[in-house]
Amino acid sequence: MSFDKSFSSLEVYISFVRDAIASEVLTSVNDTDLIRRMIAYHMGLDASNSNDHITGKHIRPLLTLLCADGSGGSWRLAKSLSVAVELVHNFSLIHDDIQDESILRRGRDTVWHKWGAAQAINAGDALFALSHLIVEKDENLSVECRLEALHIIDDACLSLISGQTLDLEFEDLDSISIEQYLNMIGGKTGALIGAATELGALFSGVSKEHQRNYREFGYQLGIAYQVRDDMLGIWGEVEKTGKMVGDDFHSRKKTLPIVMGLERSDKLRRMYNQANSDHLVFEDVVQILEETDVVEDIKHFEFNEVEKTLSKLSNACPRGYAGQALDDLVRNLLGRSY
């Protein structure tokens, strides 16, 4: 089963997520405010959007619902938790685009590029606040569950910000180790996906140990997910990813292909030190990575990370259709092209 087919088989969950996000966002902010227009635009909820790709994949809220279902909960009642984690994710994307000066997200202008950095910061901050309000007002959840959920979200946010800080800090370094890279993406990507899976288990009322198993599964899934994203940052197609290929290299990002390539090629290290030069030819970078077997080694690396994720999923032991769906999603990460 391909990544696309894996998603299509989960349409009942995905449709629920999309409707819930649209309802919460569009009813929580005054419809005359620029804040609402910016958020709706970024999340693909504006009237001009006729492409589902612009709304994003909704991996994180989908995982929350699947983990709630797989751990025995009535997954539809976990709506606020799934929406909250998606809003936090999008808050981080808006701020990330500002910091990286990225002009394209999901095939459209980024919020800061369209409205300026100052207003984009406001849009991101509003999403962060909304993520908390949605959980706080959900009377389907016990007070204890709401407090614990907010703790999980905020803890993940601190880890995410730490990972993003390292990502920016590493731009000024000539090279980093694989261990440093894994620590960075664990914060940037693993922490919030770990929170998404843990929130589903929290909702279902499982034991703390079982809850931790779900968090560890999500964290490891985030590692595997980011490795594939790093590959797409160089070998992906802009029409599918919605992002400019090669931006990471020009920004001196330490993505996995670059980390491996810098370890192997003196020529790449020299090119990397002038990565912002106008005369840099990105095709030359790709050629070096392919000549030094980086492509094959990253595929092997990714395969191992997916195997680790499946092991963590086995520890969580989700049941029924949701359990099989989670297994399918993990296995099909290897083939995704967006």
Structure, explained:
There is one protein chain. By secondary structure, this protein is mainly alpha-helical. The chain has one domain: Farnesyl Diphosphate Synthase (Orthogonal Bundle), CATH 1.10.600. Helices cover 72% and strands 1% of the residues. It has 17 helices and 2 strands. Strands 1-2 form a two-stranded antiparallel sheet. A hairpin with a 2-residue loop joins β1 (104-105) and β2 (108-109). The radius of gyration is 20 Å and the shape is globular. The model has no long low-confidence stretch (mean pLDDT 91).
The gist of it:
This protein has a single domain, classed as Orthogonal Bundle (Farnesyl Diphosphate Synthase), CATH 1.10.600.
Present the secondary structure layout.
Blueprint: H1 3-8, H2 11-28, H3 34-42, H4 59-70, H5 79-100, E1 104-105, E2 108-109, H6 111-115, H7 117-136, H8 143-170, H9 178-204, H10 208-235, H11 238-241, H12 247-250, H13 256-264, H14 266-272, H15 282-291, H16 294-316, H17 320-331
Antiparallel strand pairs: 1-2
Helix pairs in contact: 2-5, 3-7, 4-5, 4-9, 4-17, 5-7, 5-8, 5-9, 8-9, 9-10, 10-16, 13-14, 16-17
